[in-house]
Design brief:
387 residues; alpha/beta; TIM Barrel; six-stranded parallel beta sheet
């Protein structure tokens, strides 16, 4: 016993050290792989055009992984220095609060959660471990803290005025980056639509009714019932519109998309998706849905991962953008990477010039390439963010 007890203490300390300080990074390295690491090749023509564009992305999830995004990462797919290298002006940072075990695109219930162990391993506050709403508020606070420490190099956008000021600054200060906060799944409301107010006050400007499982606000395309908006979901939409928050229908069931388009009075987005026209599965949008979203003035963010585009390169992304533009119109298409969303990507955010190159190769004009790469998103936000 004289030797066993100290040995057990040492083993326990080593195990806890591994769990708290090593394992979360290992998990991210495994889940957020970059299939083709940088540097990335592109034509001289594409490089020249890419440098002139205002590039924006509707969806990425790096806040989940505990990295300081002001530092250049050695894992994952996106951070502020890499956004700068990719000439990205604005990145929407989404908050993930709950993810079911065995997550898939067909059928999930909300009885299990992968995020709790990750939150414990990353030493989140106890309040954020126990409450989905607090998880959202904690991640928002982290992003706002990064902005405060960036000496103006990174700013969080809350209003149209913020965005206009940032764009004026960027004309003379190349390399500065803006972020906008979004929520992936209204389970963070914890069943109460009135919690929209607290989330808005924390800086969130976009939210979806459901993520990978049905929520109390609406059905998920990957849930059990796959129903439409609930009465609480309709109240959520009403409160969001009063505040000027943007409704995101990514991951929503067909019934929820139909209900949301019927009750909303403002344009909506689908922040990250693919299209059935190039990649037919339950994750992606039909042509009828593309047309309905465009008729509402909406914006469709095309993702980069294989389930979204049925490919592992920028050409597959360009094919999806081309199909969406052909059905919905070029003014309704945007980028929605899903970087750091627990999926392998063909490139990290420094490689977006490859999409510019692929769009040019597909016959897009410079003007239409600029719209898809970020111009549409900037215009949409200038029209729909709160004053």
């Amino acid at each position: 016993m004289k030797f066993i007890l100290p040995a057990l203490v040492v083993l326990l300390a080593v195990g806890l050290g591994f769990f708290f300080f090593v394992l979360p990074a290992r998990v991210e390295q495994a889940m957020n792989r970059v299939i083709n690491p940088p540097p990335y090749a592109a034509s001289d023509k594409a490089k020249a055009l890419h440098e002139t564009l205002i590039i924006a992305d509707l969806h990425a999830d790096p806040l989940l992984w505990g990295r300081d995004l002001l530092a250049r990462g050695t894992r994952g797919q996106v951070d502020i220095p890499r956004l700068e290298d990719g000439n990205v002006a604005l990145q929407v940072f989404a908050v993930v609060s709950k993810s079911p075990r065995g997550q898939n695109i067909e059928h999930n219930d909300g009885s299990t959660d992968n995020i709790t162990l990750l939150a414990i391993g990353q030493r989140w506050p106890l309040s954020a471990i126990l409450s989905l709403k607090q998880r959202a508020l904690y991640q928002a606070a982290r992003l706002n803290d990064m902005a405060a420490r960036s000496d103006g190099h990174f700013v969080v956008i809350r209003t149209k005025r913020d965005l206009r000021r940032f764009l004026e600054r960027r004309k003379v200060e190349r390399g500065i980056v803006a972020g906008l906060l979004a929520i992936e799944g209204a389970q963070v409301l914890e069943g109460d639509p009135a919690n929209v107010d607290a989330l808005f006050d924390a800086g969130f400007r976009m939210m979806s009714p459901a993520h990978f499982f049905d929520s109390e606000m609406g059905g998920s395309a990957h849930g059990v019932d796959k129903g439409g908006l609930t009465d609480k979901g309709r109240e959520m939409v009403r409160r969001m519109e009063e505040k000027g928050m943007i409704l995101d229908l990514a991951h929503a069931s067909s019934a929820t998309i139909d209900d949301a388009l019927a009750v909303s009075t403002r344009p909506v987005v689908i922040s990250h998706t693919g299209v059935k026209g190039t990649c037919d599965n339950n994750r992606n949008l039909s042509d009828d849905q593309l047309k309905a979203l465009a008729a509402k003035g909406g914006l469709i963010g095309i993702g980069y991962w294989e389930t979204a585009v049925c490919g592992k390169d920028a050409a597959a992304v360009a094919r999806a953008i081309q199909h969406a533009a052909g059905v919905a119109g070029i003014d309704h298409v945007a980028l929605g990477s899903d970087f750091d969303g627990a999926v392998a990507m063909p490139f990290d955010t420094t490689g977006l010039v490859q999409i510019t190159d692929a769009l040019q190769s597909a016959g897009f004009s410079d003007a239409d390439t600029g719209k898809a790469m970020g111009g549409n998103e900037i215009r949409f936000l200038l029209e729909n963010l709160p004053d």
